[in-house]
UniProtKB/TrEMBL annotation:
Its EC number is 3.1.1.80. GO terms for molecular function: acetylajmaline esterase activity. Belongs to the 'GDSL' lipolytic enzyme family. Residues 1-26 form the signal peptide. The lineage of its organism: Eukaryota, Viridiplantae, Streptophyta, Embryophyta, Tracheophyta. InterPro entries: GDSL (IPR001087), SGNH_hydro_sf (IPR036514). This is Acetylajmaline esterase. Keywords: Glycoprotein, Hydrolase, Signal.
Amino acid sequence: MASSSTKSMIALFVFSLLLISNASFAEPPSYSSGDLPRLCSFDDLYKPEGYQVFRHIDTCNVGLLKLCKLNQIYQFGDSISDVGNLIRETPATPLARASIGSLLTDYYGFILDNLIRGKPVGAATPPPYARLPYGSDFPKGPTGRASNGNLLTDFYAMDAGLPLLPPFKKYGADFSHGVNFAVAGSTALPWEALAALNISSPITNSSLSVQLDWMSAYFHSLPNNMNQRSAGLENALFMMGPFGGSDYHHALFQGKSIHEIETTMVPKIVDAIMSAVRRVVSMGAKKVVLPGLYTIFRLPVYRTAFYGNFNMWEVNNDLAIHHNAQLIKAINKFNQEAENPNAVVVYGDYFSAYEALENYSVDAGMDLNVCCGSGGTEDWRYNLDLTRMCGTDGVSGCAEPKKHVSWDGENLTEEAYRIMAKYMVYRIFTGLQCPYSY
Ligand SMILES: *[C@@H]1O[C@H](CO)[C@@H](O)[C@H](O)[C@H]1NC(C)=O
Ligand SMILES: *[C@@H]1O[C@H](CO)[C@@H](O)[C@H](O)[C@H]1NC(C)=O
Ligand SMILES: *[C@@H]1O[C@H](CO)[C@@H](O)[C@H](O)[C@H]1NC(C)=O
Ligand SMILES: *[C@@H]1O[C@H](CO)[C@@H](O)[C@H](O)[C@H]1NC(C)=O
């Protein structure tokens, strides 16, 4: 499945992570330690005696982040992490669907001309992820999460033994265990910087720096003085992303070439992410995780949109790999320079986490068609019709979301995020060098 260059990139990631973490968990401790969590590194999966993790997926890596004794989590990001900010920021979006459609039409008119152009836009409605079937696996229905249920960020909070992080825009919420600042569609670059590259930001202007301004304003609103605040962040986890996916998405759908993106955007985006890291560290952050990107062009919405065209999936795979490699380089530099020896910045290997999910989904017999879609019967559609996507009237979720990887073509199901989280909590735990003891 993975090409040898992908494999060597993965080896490089693992190697980089070991460098960052001083390899103190190269050998997972034995499982005989009483009530300690069962560690599943996923690394021995493909050994002949493997399949340990698959068989034990429900019991492995449970409560691992609890050992890190985190008291707060601050999450930044886009639709992968948004738990209800965009729907509060933009309660009605007449153009939510249509803007995606028209961007596709502008650039890929040859594919979608007859499908989307000329369709009525309709009256103002709440964004699709504020309506069922989004959130169908929550007792109270939709929350603004772009899935049927919980996201990665929720699984991290649960694993750390903390309440789920409330969205920053939820007035009067209890932020004592952290805040989620992520906004679906958010970009790493501010909208002005994107505009200077002739790229518009159609969903939100609440980019990474805006989210940091919110955090700063929030910290300053607290009664404590600055020193006490910093001390309070000693055991806080800062999840800075993933970021960049929306920038690349907008650029690609607005006609930028991969070459242009790699040369002009990637360095700017990595710089923006690293200055965000410096900013949170200057505010007192000690534990920072910087997730990389997974290969969005392996997701159904891109496979369907670009079906029959140039080999967009491979190309985007390269873009994610390129972005991640630059990010890892910047993280290593940051840690080596030890500008802040008390702060540790760990690379979050979402690329491998997604690959682990793909591997798992094959072995577990999960369905690759989207759960919430209305596609035709052709294999390449993955049950996805770009004119009638999840959230459109009459498009319902599937009977068993647990059996699907993809929720709506781009965003994953709760089950998929659960599996990725199983992989990631182990990597975060080892990266932060949390003690394997209570
Ligand atoms: C994924 O979710 C975001 C909102 O959270 C939405 O903007 C995007 O359209 C979704 N993707 C698809 C293919 O529906
Ligand atoms: C910006 O995009 C518009 C239309 O997409 C194009 O006409 C214009 O030449 C572009 N400008 C630059 C500086 O690339
Ligand atoms: C972002 O800000 C610009 C300038 O104020 C505005 O024209 C644009 O509509 C905003 N975009 C969104 C999605 O709010
Ligand atoms: C996924 O499976 C391939 C073999 O098919 C293996 O080489 C790769 O390491 C696996 N990836 C992960 C993250 O487990």
